[in-house]
Amino acid sequence: MLRAYKIKTLYGVGLVEVKFQQEFLRLAEQEITPLAELEWEESGHPTQTLVIDWDAYFNLEDAGVLKFFTARKDDLLVGYFIVLVFTPLTAKGELVGSYDSVYVHKDHRKSSVGKRLFTYVETCMKEDGVYRVIASSSVKNPIGNFLNRLGYNEIETKYEKVL
Fold it and tell me: What are the boundaries of each domain within the chain?
C-alpha cells in the first residue's frame, strides 16, 4: 500500500509544505543516487566504497521486503528512508523493520523534516503490522542523541574487522 501525507513545517522564515510519502524506489533511482552519495560521504563506511546494488534493492522491493519513503519539498527529493521488513529467526511471527538507509539533506535538517520523516515511517510501519524497528548510527556521523529523543533505546554496539 502506497501512502502520502502533506504537512506544513516551520523552515527558515516561514512555513514550507513538505510531502512525506511511500514511493517505489525503482522509480526514484536517478533522484536518490546524488543523495545516497552525500549520505555516504557524511557517514560512509571507512573501509568500503559505495557501490549500490540497485538490482538487489529492486528485487527486495518486488518481494515486498523493502519499503521506500520520501520527503519532498516542491517535488524535490530532500530526504529518504529505506526499511527492510522481515521476521527474525529468533522471533517467529514477529515483523521487524530494519532501517537500511536514512538521509535528510543538510539544508533541511534545522527544520523538523527528519523528525517528521521518522514519525511518518513509524506510523506506516505500525499500520503494516511491524512490531519493532531497528535503527543504527554510524561512528562518523552519529545520530544516537536524535534517536534517543525519538524514544529509541541503545541495545548493542557493533564492531567490524576487515580480513
Answer: 4-149
Looking at 3.40.50.300, 3.30.70.2570, 3.40.630.30, 3.40.390.10, the CATH number of the domain 4-149 comes to 3.40.630.30
pLDDT in tens, 3-59: 555 444 444 445 568 899 999 999 999 999 999 998 888 876 667 788 999 999 999
- Cα separation, 16 vs 65, in Å, equals 32
- The burial of 83, by beta-carbon neighbours within 10 Å (0-12 exposed, 13-18 middle, 19 or more buried), is given as buried
Grid cell 546524488 is found at: 34
Asked whether 57 and 90 are in contact (CB, 8 A), the reply is: no
Q: Write the DSSP assignment of 83-139 as a string of letters.
A: EEEE--TTSTT--EEEEEEEEE-GGGTTTTHHHHHHHHHHHHHHHTT--EEE----S
Return the C-alpha cell found at 129: 503490522
Q: How many CA atoms lie within 13 A of 35 on its CB side?
A: 23
Per-residue pLDDT averaged across 132-159, rounded? 88
- Type and span of the H or E element at 56: helix 54-62
pLDDT for 11 equals 44
